[in-house]
Structure formats: C-alpha cells, structure tokens
C-alpha cells in the first residue's frame, strides 16, 4: 500500500492483480485498486475531478480525466473518509499509475490539487 498526504488529505492505495485474458487478439492484464481518501484537515472538502496517468512496461501512457470518482463527488468533513475500488487494463504484466484529485475547500472556497502517489501494478508471476 502506498500513502501520501497533501494539504491534510491522506490518499492510500492498495492494488490487486485480477487476471489476464485476450481481447481483440491481444493479451490484457487486469488490475484493481482501492483508494481511501481521508480528510485529516480541519476544513470540509469536496472531490470534484480526477486525473490519472496509466503507464505500462511497453512505454504506453494513457491519460484519463473526468468528474468525480466512480460517479460520485464526495464531500468529506474533518475526520471522514471515502473509499472506492476501480480497475484498469494493461498490455503488459506490470506498470504504474499516478495522478491527482481536484478538490475544493469549503472554508476558503479555494480549489486545490491532492497528489495520488505513484503505485505499481504487477502480476505475481512477473515479479523477480
């Protein structure tokens, strides 16, 4: 599990390898990740958008941006957390993801970014 705190918002990420399969005559490796967003600040905040960079071992980079996370824009009061699980497909048995969340602080009404630390995606059979 990787963790990082930005402006009082703690991001924790745990990953799983879900398996491999063929799609359009290419092998795909499926990974799951669970993110916990914990508000350790004294202000209420809301997650409005996400930005991801998904990298695989073949130097392919996929950029994903959008509103909220899995259809939600969670509001977190001090001490609250939000956990969700999602996934991605890679064309190699290992890679990584990183990114940031765009959030708003309700006390100051200012927007800010929270870093999602780089986390590795690796199939157990691909690890030395």
Please state the CA-atom Rg, rounded to the nearest Å.
16 Å
How large is the share of residues in beta strands?
A: over 45%
Output the structural class: mainly beta
Tell me the number of structural domains. 1
C-alpha end-to-end distance: 19 Å
Protein name: Co2+/Mg2+ efflux protein ApaG
Organism: Flavivirga aquatica
Pfam families: DUF525
Domain ApaG: 3-128
Folded structure, characterized:
- The chain is elongated, with a radius of gyration of 16 Å.
- The chain has strands at 2-6, 9-23, 26-39, 45-56, 61-67, 75-76, 81-90, 94-105, 111-122.
- The protein has a single domain (2-121), classed as ApaG domain (Immunoglobulin-like).
- It is built from no helices and nine strands.
- The model has no long low-confidence stretch (mean pLDDT 95).
- It is 0% helix and 70% strand.
Key features of this structure:
five-stranded antiparallel sheet; four-stranded antiparallel sheet; elongated; mainly beta; Immunoglobulin-like; 128 residues
Topology:
Layout lengths: L1 E5 L2 E15 L2 E14 L5 E12 L4 E7 L7 E2 L4 E10 L3 E12 L5 E12 L6
Antiparallel strand pairs: 1-2, 2-3, 3-7, 4-5, 4-6, 4-8, 8-9
Write a compact overview of the structure shown.
The chain is mostly beta strands. The chain is 0% helix and 70% strand.
């Amino acid at each position: 599990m990787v963790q990082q705190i930005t402006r009082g918002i703690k991001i924790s990420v745990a990953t799983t390898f879900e398996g491999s399969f063929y799609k359009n005559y290419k092998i795909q490796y499926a990974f799951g990740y669970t993110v916990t967003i914990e508000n350790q600040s004294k202000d209420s905040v809301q997650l409005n958008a996400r930005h991801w960079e998904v990298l695989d071992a073949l130097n392919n980079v996929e950029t994903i941006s959008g509103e909220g996370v899995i259809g939600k824009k969670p509001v977190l009061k001090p001490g609250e957390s939000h956990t969700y699980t999602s996934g991605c497909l890679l064309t190699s048995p290992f890679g990584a993801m990183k990114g940031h969340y765009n959030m708003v602080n309700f006390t100051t009404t200012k927007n800010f970014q929270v870093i999602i630390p780089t986390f590795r995606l690796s199939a157990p059979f691909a690890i030395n």
